[in-house]
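Would you be willing to look carefully at the protein I have copied below?

:::
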Amino acid sequence: MKISSIKAKNFRSLMQIEMNDLADLNSIVGKNNSGKSNLLNLIEIIFLVVGSGKLILGMDLDDTDFWNGDSDEEICIEATFELSTQEAYLVSSHIQKMEIDI
């Protein structure tokens, strides 16, 4: 399973980010406090949702999870995956069983 693109809005220090055409191996380079760790946290959340089979709504969030502390604006996260045929089958059966935690 490979992430081919990521979009996020209002997540921690990432006001808005869009990364397309991601390769098999990518480097994250930037100055201190530029959002590198928050990008990795974002990717971790994506894989937690995919791996657990649970859509996480109403996570325990505080103002630090929202860009500029603005919890009135929702956090949006979108990822596109490239899957092998076997992975596509497993994911589709997994999604049919997906639970929603509120």
